[in-house]
Each structure stands twice: as C-alpha cells, then as structure tokens.
Amino acid sequence: MKIYLNGAFVEKEKAVVSVFDHGLLYGDGVFEGIRSYGGLVFRLKEHIDRLYRSADAIQLKIPLTKLEMMNATVDTLKENKLKDAYIRLVVTRGPGDLGLDPRKCKVATVFIIADKIKLYPEEFYRKGLKIVTATTKRNLPQALDPRIKSLNYLNNILAKIDAIKAGTEEAIMLTHDGFVAECTGDNIFMITKGELVTPPTTVGALEGVTREAVMNVARALDIPVYEKMLKMDDMYAADEMFLTGTAAEIIPVIEVDDRKIGSGKPGSMTLKLLEEFHKTTKTDGVRY
Fold first, then answer.
1. Alpha carbon of 117 to those of 33, 35, 64, 113, 114: distances in Å?
2. Is the pLDDT confidence value at 121 over 90?
3. Is the pLDDT reported for residue 107 higher than 90?
4. At what angle do helices 66-79 and 44-57 cross, to 10 degrees?
C-alpha cells in the first residue's frame, strides 16, 4: 500500500509523522472520509470544500490548492490501483514543540490513505441495527463546533464506548438540554407520516456529505424533507429510522433503547432511499 505524504508516495511502513506533530499531540487538524465506487470518487468536490471550511474554522493553512488536493486524492487511488475504496484525507497543524502555540507549527502535514472498509456487517443492512442513547453528551457548539470535522474525536469515542458497553454498534448523542444531535459516527434520520426528518446541524451535528446527498435523493422522490429539533420521544415514535455516513452509506435502525421502531424491520421508504442513493454513487462525483 502506498500513502500520499506531503507530496510523495511512500510505503505504509515508512509513512510516519513527527512525534511533535500537533495532530498527534493535541488532535489539532482536520480530516475527510471519502468513498470511491467503480472508479468514481463520490462527491469529491463537496468533501474537499468541507475540508477547507473545517481548516478555515481552526485557522489552519492547507499547503495545497483545492484542485491540487483533488488531484492528490485521485492519484492516491491510481497509485494503489483501487476502484472501490475508502479514502482518509488528513491535514494536521504539523510539527511544532510541546506547547499549544500553533505559530510554532510552520508547515501543515498532509497525508492520504486509500484502502477497503466495511463499517457494519452485511446483515445489519438487511435486518437493521439496534442502537442506544449515549450517556455522553454532545460537545457544546459554542465550545467545539461539531460541524468542524477535526481530529479531536474524543467526544465521539466516549459515546462509542457507551454503545459498546450496551452491546450495540452505535449510540445517539444528545445535547446538554436533551435534543438529538447525531450518532457517534453518523447522521440520523427518522421517517414519520411519510416525511423525512433530521436534526439541524446547528444543534451540534456534522454537515454530512452523505446526509446532504440523501436529502437530495428524497426531494427527487417528492418526499418532504425537514430539519427539526427532536427529542428522544420523537425518535421512539418514528415509523422508520436510519443512519447515514460515508462509510455506513444508509443503514436502517430497527430498535432504540430496547424500543422497537415501526414494524421492527427496515422500512420500505428507507430501502427505497438506499436503492436510489446507490444510483447516485455511479454518477455524482469525479471519474478517474
């Protein structure tokens, strides 16, 4: 496997960063997870735009133009002869010293990994996923805005540990005042009375690229789409529920906190959205 690292391709065993890199020391950096399908990088421009928005939000200067970053992403796939892959694109503050001062980091570190990924077993897509509500609360957006896709994922990891302890794969994260934000690694949707509903990103959810793609698919199917503040009682009463993410795509949820959602099986509207979403992965992106 070849890794893109600061403008060159190196074998993964030699793809190393300094122990003084502030991405390692302090989680100071941003990243993107991107998918390629059959030689098409799905929504590459949207992912790169979000990467640069995240970098701007933490005043991190990326030493590549957006076009150069897109080309580097495609070149990484070509170098590894991959047509269907998961791409992890990371930009750190770069090496500095043991202090917090970002001015000590003169040049950002950029690396790109392309590999295979399977986030959930296939049976979960057929039978649905059981999830719980995390005891860990979502970070306050005023303190650390979750819309910034930063390397500091400890909040999500602690909530993931809540899920693992409960014997599930995912957990819903609530705000400090009890509103639904998102899951530990995915956005969340519910369907009620034929309408698709998801929390607004302002509540503390990532502006998911797959989230946006699914909302566009729903609108094309004439399904009403709304962003609403939701409590757990709203989620329990849903007719259908599913999660979205780059790695997860669309995965049905059939149970939350031991409460059955709808019929307790993946819903027809969820399955239709999944079918139509898969069609977009063949056309919506950059071909290489």
1. 11, 9, 27, 12, 10
2. no
3. yes
4. 130
User: Which residues are marked as active site?
Assistant: 149
pLDDT at site 119: 78
Using one digit for the tens of pLDDT, what is the confidence trace for 181-208? 999 999 999 999 999 999 999 999 999 9
Rounded CA-CA distance 6/68 in Å is 12
- The token pair at 190 is 């519910």
The number of beta carbons lying within 10 Å of the beta carbon of residue 213 is 21
pTM for the complete prediction? 0.94
Cα separations (Å) of 209 from 48, 55, 195, 245, 249?
10, 16, 20, 8, 10
**By the 8 A CB rule, do 261 and 255 touch?**
yes
119 backbone dihedrals φ, ψ, rounded to 5°: -70, -45
Q: What is the mean pLDDT of the chain?
A: 96
Q: Taking a C-beta distance cutoff of 8 angstroms, is the pair 240, 261 a contact?
A: yes
Say if residues 86 and 115 touch (Cβ distance below 8 Å): yes
In the chain, the percentage of residues whose pLDDT exceeds 90 is: 95
